[in-house]
Amino acid sequence: MDTPDDAHLDRVARTARWTAAERARESTRPDRLFDDPLAEALAGEQGRVLASSMAAEQGGDNPGFAIRTRFYDDAVTDSVCARQAVNQVVSVAAGMDTRAFRLALPRELVWYELDRPELLALKDQVLAEEGATPGCVRRPVGVDLTGEWADALTAAGFDPARSALWLVEGLIFYLERAVVYNLLDDLTRLAVPGSELLIDTVGRSMLDSPHTRSLRDRLAREGAPWRFGTDGPEDELLGPRGWRASVWMYSEIGTRLGRWPHPVVPRGTPDAPQSFLIHATR
Predict the structure, then answer these.
(1) Is 108 left (phi over 0), alpha (psi -120 to 50) or beta?
(2) Residues 158-172 pLDDT 10s
(3) Percent of the chain with pLDDT over 70
(4) Which ranges of the chain would DSSP assign to H, the alpha helix?
(5) Within 13 Å and on the Cβ side, how many CA atoms surround 90?
(6) Which of 154, 246, 272, 276 allows an S-S link to 265, with CB 3.0 to 4.6 Å?
(7) CA distances (Å), 102 to each of 77, 91, 179, 216, 246, in order?
(8) Are the CB atoms for 111 and 138 separated by under 8 Å?
(9) Measured in Å, how far apart are the chain's first and last C-alpha atoms?
(10) What is the DSSP letter of 235?
(11) Is the pTM for the entire model greater than 0.90?
């Protein structure tokens, strides 16, 4: 059988390597917000090169990766452990995420990972080489998230009659608007009352701002341009689909964690590029 490698991954899927490299960098800091011992291996040489190149071009590390990871870590453990609100989690476009391995989760929790089959094959190979063992029941499900994926998820054991925590991390800004809408429609059809959703998005302000042009241009050159943004995710994306959303700017969470290097600009300030972390419930 062929060994999976980066050559089989599309450009957007390869950003998972970059994200893993950023988590690996964070894990070496004395003031780290989390520790991900598998991130270095999952990043691979491609992820490390891209992370270094992006940091050099942007004049330093991007704090958003660490902020988002810690925000979701806390939200997942609160939902699954502290409140025991759900016993199944669906990570949509899971990439090189390792929460099923590094968080203290209940053994009986079922953690589904949706992503391209070739990416999951590469990930599983690296995890096997590292001797990694998940702390819960982990079920990778290879799908194309721009097409039909619900049947594959339920075939893997997902129970649509029970509430779940849905995690959509670092994804929707790479998609066309219609694809974002379809993905959320499909997800919502599987989300019974009591379900929860963690999702992030850049604002339209990020797509239009001259301050983010160099980052947007670099992502486009990497074949992974930002395509979608909204400054009103609760009104455009979630409210119409029956989700009650709490929305925070990255700057708010980053300041709380001691990692935001700029003053917090109020939401909706003209010409201020903003992006958002969201926790929604049904």
Answers:
(1) alpha
(2) 999 999 999 999 999
(3) 95
(4) 11-27, 39-58, 64-77, 99-102, 117-129, 150-155, 177-189, 204-208, 213-221, 233, 250-256
(5) 29
(6) 272
(7) 11, 15, 31, 31, 26
(8) yes
(9) 43
(10) I
(11) yes
